[in-house]
Amino acid sequence: MSLLEIKNLSYIYGSGTAFEKKAVNNVSLSINKGEFVGIIGHTGSGKSTLIQMMNGLIKPGEGEILLDGNNIWSDPKKIRNVRFRVGIVFQYPEYQLFEETVEKDIAYGPKNMGLSNEEIKKRVKDAAYFVGLKPELLKKSPFELSGGEKRRAAIAGVIAMDPEILILDEPTAGLDPKERVRFRNMVRKLSEKMTVIFCTHIVSDIETIAKEVILIHHGKLVQKGNIPTLIKEMDGKVWELIPDADELESLLEQYPRSSLVSRNMQTVLRVVNDEKPHNDAHACEPVLEDVYLYHFGDDNA
Ligand SMILES: Nc1ncnc2c1ncn2[C@@H]1O[C@H](COP(=O)(O)OP(=O)(O)OP(=O)(O)O)[C@@H](O)[C@H]1O
Ligand SMILES: [Mg+2]
After folding, report:
1. Ligand 1 within 6 A of CB of 171
2. Separation of 270 CA from ligand 2 center, angstroms?
3. Is the CB of 76 under 6 A from ligand 1?
4. Would you identify the CATH topology of the domain 4-231?
5. Ligand 1 centre and the CA of 18: distance in Å?
6. pLDDT, tens digit, for every residue of 203-256?
7. How far is CA 141 from CA 99, 106, 136, 192, 236, in A?
8. pTM score, two decimals?
9. Residues lower than pLDDT 70 in the chain
10. Which of 145, 200, 265, 267 has its Cα between 20 and 30 A from that of 132?
């Protein structure tokens, strides 16, 4: 049995109003224990809405969420337990911090779980260590931390609850490239202990750590699969050529699923297309970014 199973889930904001928006549209998927799943989609594609339903923060309009085979809404009084089992680090985790000190902030979740003071202390210390927060920062106000440190504190607060599933919503947004790499390593380490769901619109965030990926677009699941398999399916669909300056514009227009790369002082056009786009083009090795481009490249909405 899957650890988390979602069946025909939909969510509408502002139902019945002029602003009605179907943010999640009939999504079904399942996630097994120990998996590391990436959820990729453009801004506004419904990632945050989808994951907030996964831990019972918002209730689906239609569909079911099963945790260990049990519908999480079968007893609404027990929904708090679901939130302990499925932890979310929100998109802007700095807004998640509100206590006087970092230590109290990390302790907030475990305290709500009704753990003993001794256990809380241990969990705070272990979680801070795990995310690489120096002990001297624990007594500081969360507002005195740097952006990267605030992220770490917010993650520590969630992992201190020892959730079975950890959901990270765009955890690297706004971090500098070095911090981003450190983050990835930390998440990789976390994934050895728990099931991880990582939402992002940045493909490189997950391509080396996730095994499975889910692509969502306008609230719908468009693809789910094992990353190497999805990449393999792109064989013969990814092309490169060095375009003449006068044909570049028309090629870009003709092939919206394309990107420009600078290599050896030359501009290389990389095109994702079923057929060879140009006589001078040669097939090249696909990567995960090409899968993303194939599905979304001609629609940046
Ligand atoms: N509270 C809300 N009220 C009304 N509409 C909302 C609300 N939150 C999100 N939406 C709309 O629902 C859709 C999905 O939003 P959501 O935040 O789930 O997308 P996302 O994939 O997480 O985007 P991003 O990458 O920008 O975080 C968007 O069109 C958004 O404008
Ligand atoms: Mg979001």
Report:
1. no
2. 28
3. no
4. Rossmann fold (3.40.50)
5. 16
6. 888 988 999 999 999 999 999 999 999 999 999 999 999 999 899 999 999 999
7. 8, 12, 11, 31, 54
8. 0.92
9. 298-301
10. 200
